[in-house]
Amino acid sequence: MSGVIYQISCITTNLKYIGQATQFKYKNGKPYNYGASGRWNDHVATSHVRNTPLCRAIQQYGRDNFVVEVLETNLLELLDEREAHYIAERNTIHPHGYNVASHSRNRHRETSNLHVFYEGKVSNAVISPIRKDGELKSAYVYLTMLDGTRERIAFGQKEENTYEDTMEEVTDFLERLGCPSTVSTAYSTVLSEKYASKLAEFKEKEITSVRITSASSLIAVYIGTSEMTLSKEHKRICFGGKTISKEEAYEIAKQFVAELNISEKLINDSIKSSQQVTA
Questions:
Q1: Which of 43, 83, 138, 278 is the most exposed place for a label (fewest CB within 10 A)?
Q2: Which residues contact 240 (CB under 8 A, 6 or more apart)?
Q3: In the prediction, which pLDDT does 116 show?
Q4: What mean pLDDT is predicted for residues 9-31?
Q5: 56 by DSSP, 3-state: which?
Q6: pTM given for the model
Q7: How far, in Å, CA of 137 to CA of 144, rounded?
Q8: Res 109: pLDDT
């Protein structure tokens, strides 16, 4: 089966969104045309209930202020890499565009060639299993790039996936990528259980700034959103405690920030800059 890579451009702002869609969908067992136009209609239909940069722009400027075009048609299993390519090439990550991640890893296929986009760019990977309702379910793979930046990829997003399915998907991706990897369970367990509700507060919100700093024996993360006009309104979340070293708290704080899935340009890590962390 095939699908498309499409681009949505706002005439007023000239900001763009890159996405992917399957050519056909099925209803009552019968196929119907979907593609870029069908996906665009979905974006418009959900724009009044979602708070993504694209949805806000649709609400602000109206659907007639956007142009939708197909960039290429390809096999479904090739779309992940092609989508990531166009997002990087056209610099459409918010605030430079309307994308909120470097790829979407859509769920309409069983296999993916996303590894192709990262080949030769990654120094190492950390696998962080994630719990849902107390049970291991999905996983994040944190990639440390050769240029020092970090990217996160989610695996096991299908509802029917077991944890075994997830790890098989992760293993296949990393084997194809060919980079060294380790498994970290300590921080992901803490995040999924203790900080799940805090992460949920920022779901679908436009995060405008994140500051990581030292706060006595703790690590503090200050998060600002588009709804906050003053810095004193920024949400403060602390990491650490009697049983966690400050160095460990810093690692947990960094993973929490990574799970917000925002551009590196919005993050001010004062600890990394001044090397404040002590064991």
A1: 278
A2: 217, 218, 219, 246, 248, 249, 252
A3: 76
A4: 88
A5: helix
A6: 0.48
A7: 23
A8: 47
Residue 104 phi/psi, 5-degree rounding, is -110, -20
The yes-or-no verdict on residue 274 having pLDDT over 70 is: no
User: Which residues contact residue 26 at a Cβ distance below 8 angstroms, ignoring those fewer than 6 apart?
Assistant: 32
Tokens read off for 135: 């049970």
What pLDDT digit, counting tens, does each position of 134-189 carry?
677 788 888 888 888 888 788 877 777 788 778 878 887 887 788 888 887 555 55
Partner residues linked to 32 by β-bridges: 25
3-state secondary structure of 90: coil
The CATH class for the domain spanning 2-89 reads alpha beta
Exposure string for 66-89, b = 16+ CB within 10 A, e = fewer: bebeebeebebebbbbbbbbbbee
Do 130 and 192 meet the contact criterion of CB atoms below 8 Å apart?
yes
Tokens, residue 4? 């498309």
Domains of the chain, by residue range, sit at 2-89, 119-189, 197-274
Backbone phi, psi, residue 98, to 5°: -105, 0
Look at the block and give the residue holding tokens 């405690």: 241
Radius of gyration, alpha carbons of the chain: 20
pLDDT at position 72 over 90: yes
d(CA 241, CA 255): 17
Q: Where are the beta strands (DSSP E) in the chain?
A: 2-10, 16-22, 24-27, 30-33, 66-75, 122-132, 135-145, 150-155, 181-183, 207-215, 218-225, 235-239, 267-269
